[in-house]
Write a structure and sequence with these properties.
Elements (H helix, E strand, L loop, with lengths): L2 H61 L1 H14 L3 E6 L5 E4 L13 E9 L5 E12 L5 E7 L1 H51 L15 H54 L3 H32 L5 E4 H18 L3 E6 L4 E4 L1 H18 L5 E8 L5 E7 L31 H11 L3 E6 L11 E7 L7
Parallel strand pairs: 7-9
Antiparallel strand pairs: 1-2, 1-5, 3-4, 4-5, 6-8, 9-10, 10-12, 11-12
Helix pairs in contact: 1-2, 1-3, 4-5, 5-8, 6-7, 7-8
C-alpha cells in the first residue's frame, strides 16, 4: 500500500502550494495597488495640465494673442509647475519657460517626455513630464506641459514599499504554510499510524477526530466508519464460520452414524441400510440447503437484487397464501390473508418469494395448533409497500429482535424446531437488496394460552411512476 508514503509527502507539498497561492494572491493585490496609484497620479496631473491649457486658450479666444502672451509671462514669473511654449505662426518662440517644444510631441496628442533639469546641488536630472501642443486659430502654437517628476519619485517610493511588502508577504506565507503543514502533518501522522496498524491486522485502531469540522476530520470519520464496517464484517465472517462449524457438526455426525449403520446392515445382509441411506440423504439435503442459503445472502449483500423487474406485489402475496394455506390447515392453524390491489414494486420475484416463504413458514412452524397466522399486503401511508406476517406463537423478546435477524442466531425457544437460523437473515438481506427494511413487532398479544405472537413486516419502496 502506497498511502503511508503519500501521507508523508503531503505536508511538504501543501506548504509549497499554500505559499505559491498566498504569494500569487498578495502579488496580484500589490500589483493592482501600484498600477492604480500610478494611473491615478498620472491622470490627476494630466487633468491639471488640461485645465491650464483650457484657461489659456480661453484667454486667446476672448482677448487675443497679446493677452495670452501676457498671461504666460505672469505664469512663468510665478514659477509654477507648468511648462509653456508659445510660438508664432512663423514658428518662432514668443514666450517660453523651457527651451523649446520637446521632440516627438505632435499637435493635439498627449506625449510623455523627459525634461533635463539641474537640482540645487548642480546635478543634472531628466525628470518625467507630460504635455500637449495646441494649434491656435491664428496659426500660433501653444504648448502646455507639467513636470511630473514628483509623481515619478512617489511611484519609486511606492515601488520600494511594495517590494518590502512582498518580502513580508513571502515570510508570512511561508510561516502560514509551515503552520498549516504542521497541523496537516500531525493529522496525517495519525492517519498513517491507523493505516499501518490496519496493515498489521489491527482492526480496532481508529483515526483521531479533532472536531475541527474540516476535510481531515471528514476523512478520519469516513476511515473510522469504513473500519467499523470492516471489523463488523470480519467479526460476522468469524461468527459465521464458528456457527457453521457448530450447526453442521450435529447433522454431519448423524449422517456419518447413519452411513455407518447402513454399512453394518449391508454387511449383515439386512435391508435396513437403505432406510439409513435415505436419512443420510435427508441430512445431506439439509446441509446443502444451509450452504445455498448462506451463498444467497452473500450474493444479495454484495451485489443487490439481480435483474429487478416491475411486478405486482399483491399477486405474489396471493400465490404465497394459496401455497401455504394447506400446510396451516394440516397443523390446525387458522390461516388468513388480507391483500390490497395495485401494489406495484420493482424487484427480483424469486428472492421476494423466498423471503415471504421464510416468513410464513416460520410463523406456521412456531405457532402451536389452534393458533392463527395472518398474511397482509398493503400500501403504507408513506407510500411504501408492506408485506407482514402475524402469528400467535411465543414471539421474540424485544431485546432479541435486533439479534434474531443475524445469521445462525437461534433463540432458546426455537432449538427444538428444525432449522439453521438463516430464515430471517435471508429476509433481511432481500429487504436491504431492494432498498427496504425488516421490522419486528409484538403480535396480537397473549390470549387463551397463545401469544404474545410476532409480527414481521417486509417494507419495500414502491415502483416509480416512470417505469
Amino acid at each position: 500500500m502506497r498511502l503511508p508514503s503519500l501521507l508523508r509527502r503531503t505536508p511538504f507539498r501543501l506548504t509549497l502550494l499554500f505559499l505559491a497561492l498566498f504569494v500569487a494572491a498578495a502579488g496580484a493585490i500589490l500589483a493592482y495597488v501600484y498600477f492604480a496609484s500610478a494611473s491615478e497620479a498620472q491622470g490627476r496631473a494630466q487633468a491639471e495640465v488640461e485645465a491650464e491649457r483650457a484657461a489659456l486658450t480661453a484667454v486667446y479666444r476672448t482677448r487675443g494673442l497679446n493677452a495670452l502672451n501676457q498671461a504666460l509671462v505672469e505664469r512663468a514669473i510665478r514659477a509654477g509647475p507648468y511648462l509653456y511654449v508659445l510660438k508664432g505662426a512663423d514658428g518662432k518662440i514668443i514666450t517660453a519657460n523651457i527651451s523649446d517644444v520637446p521632440e516627438g510631441v505632435d499637435t493635439g496628442d498627449w506625449e510623455p517626455f523627459r525634461l533635463t533639469d539641474t537640482d540645487a546641488e548642480g546635478r543634472v536630472r531628466r525628470r518625467q513630464s507630460i504635455g500637449i501642443d495646441t494649434r491656435l486659430a491664428g496659426g500660433e502654437h501653444l504648448f502646455v506641459g507639467a513636470d511630473i517628476g514628483d509623481v515619478e519619485d512617489y511611484l519609486a517610493r511606492l515601488t520600494q514599499a511594495l517590494w518590502g511588502a512582498m518580502g513580508l508577504v513571502i515570510l508570512l506565507g511561508l510561516a502560514g504554510g509551515l503552520y498549516i503543514s504542521r497541523r496537516v502533518e500531525s493529522a496525517m501522522a495519525g492517519l498513517n499510524r491507523v493505516v499501518s496498524a490496519v496493515q498489521e491486522g489491527d482492526l480496532k485502531v481508529r483515526a483521531p477526530i479533532r472536531h475541527s469540522g474540516d476535510e481531515l476530520d471528514e476523512l478520519s470519520q469516513g476511515l473510522n466508519l469504513m473500519l467499523d464496517r470492516l471489523e463488523a464484517s470480519m467479526a460476522s465472517i468469524r461468527h459465521a464460520g464458528d456457527a457453521i462449524a457448530h450447526d453442521l457438526r450435529s447433522p454431519l455426525t448423524r449422517m456419518r452414524a447413519k452411513l455407518e449403520v447402513a454399512l453394518i446392515d449391508a454387511e449383515a445382509g439386512r435391508i435396513d441400510g437403505v432406510d439409513a441411506l435415505g436419512v443420510a440423504l435427508d441430512e445431506a439435503d439439509h446441509l446443502l440447503k444451509t450452504f445455498n442459503t448462506v451463498l444467497a445472502i452473500a450474493r444479495l449483500q454484495s451485489g443487490g437484487a439481480p435483474d429487478p423487474q416491475r411486478m405486482d406485489a399483491a399477486a405474489l402475496a396471493a400465490d404465497m397464501a394459496e401455497l401455504y394455506e394447506p400446510a396451516a390447515e394440516d397443523k390446525d392453524i387458522d390461516f388468513s390473508a388480507e391483500i390490497e390491489t395495485g401494489l406495484m414494486i420493482e424487484g427480483n420475484q424469486p428472492f421476494l418469494a423466498q423471503a415471504l416463504a421464510n416468513l410464513i413458514d416460520n410463523a406456521i412452524k412456531y405457532t402451536p395448533s389452534g393458533g392463527a397466522v395472518k398474511l397482509r399486503a398493503r400500501r403504507r401511508s408513506s407510500g411504501e409497500i408492506e408485506y407482514s406476517v402475524t402469528d400467535t406463537g411465543p414471539g421474540v423478546p424485544e431485546e432479541d429482535r435486533e439479534r434474531v435477524v443475524q445469521r445462525f442466531v437461534r433463540l432458546d425457544n426455537s432449538r427444538t424446531e428444525p432449522g439453521s437460523g438463516l430464515g430471517l437473515s435471508l429476509v433481511t438481506a432481500v429487504a436491504e437488496a431492494h432498498g427496504g427494511r425488516v421490522v419486528l413487532d409484538e403480535g396480537p398479544g397473549a390470549y387463551e394460552g397463545y401469544g404474545p405472537g410476532l409480527r414481521v413486516a417486509l417494507v419495500l419502496p414502491p415502483a416509480s411512476a416512470s417505469t
